[in-house]
Amino acid sequence: MTVLTPESAQQAIQKVKSGDVIMVGGFGLIGSPLTLIDALTKHDVSDLTVISNNVGEAGRGLGILLRQGKLKKAIGSYFTSNREVAQWYNKGKLSLQLLPQGTLSEAIRAGGAGIGGFYTKTAVGTDLAKGKETKEIDGETYVFEKALKADVALIRAWKADTKGNLVYYKTARNFNPMMATAAKYVIAEVDEIVEEGELSPEEIVTPHLFVDEVIKSRLILTKEGVVERE
Questions:
Q1: Which of 18-22, 78-82, 116-120, 159-163 has the lowest mean pLDDT?
Q2: Which of 25, 49, 96, 195 has fewest C-beta within 10 Å?
Q3: pLDDT at 230 (0 to 100)
Q4: How many domains does the chain have?
């Protein structure tokens, strides 16, 4: 596991290649790895498939990557947080896979647990189930959802120790812990890095074995918006 300075974000993001599937944590911009996303906007890549709850907001977070035309496909559950997503989709410039939020969460968890997919009642009988396998279990109809995995996960945590163990802060936790288990390479952006042994084992959510690199955040979200850390 490697600990990097905020200035090394561009170095870390070189792990993302054109055509990759990437997972990006966050709910809106809460719990979103803004420093890593900023570095990705300056990285020469294209045809990315992003798995995230939403595509940031207009001109913020993943919304910048959308405007740059770097995204080929988005898999998520709340695309209306960025109305530009619909514009790109209607122009045929972006492919979308809409998943109910609980299904999205479970699909990521399944990917990290080595499960190929699962059956759920959610979306049965709707357009979201079209083309998907269905099965009757105990008299109830279920739809099969494939697990989700990624080449690289960009996640956001509150604290890390120098070994790479992660602690999260309240709702900023969201999809981040699951994404850390479901990608081949995991880069964690954090507010604070402490020495190994300073985190209580009871508070550690993501063990260091899932984390490849840790970088201290340079960009943070405040009431005024996205600002640079002093």
A1: 78-82
A2: 195
A3: 63
A4: 1
Positive or negative, the CA dihedral 214, 154, 43, 59 is: negative
* Residue found by looking up tokens 């070189």 in the block: 14
Q: Which residue has the tokens 């890593």?
A: 36
Tokens 């996960």 belong to residue? 153
Burial of 29 (0-12, 13-18, 19+ CB in 10 A): buried
Q: What is the DSSP letter of 168?
A: -
Q: Cα angle at 112 between 6 and 38, to 5 degrees?
A: 25
What is the rounded average pLDDT of the residues 157-179? 97
| pLDDT tens column, 61-98 | 999 999 999 999 999 999 988 999 999 999 999 999 99
Q: How many CB atoms lie within 10 A of CB 77?
A: 17
| CATH number, position 111 | 3.40.1080.10
Residue type at 10 in one-letter notation: Q
Contacts of range 7-15, beta carbons closer than 8 Å, 24 or more positions apart: 7/218, 8/215, 9/35, 9/36, 9/38, 9/39, 9/215, 9/218, 10/39, 10/42, 10/43, 12/36, 12/39, 12/187, 12/213, 12/215, 13/39, 13/40, 13/43, 13/187, 14/43, 15/152, 15/185, 15/187
Which residues span the domain enclosing 85? 2-228
CA pair distance 174, 210, nearest whole angstrom:
17
Helix (H, G, I), strand (E, B) or coil at 5: coil
Nearest to 29 by CA among 105, 81, 97, 73: 81
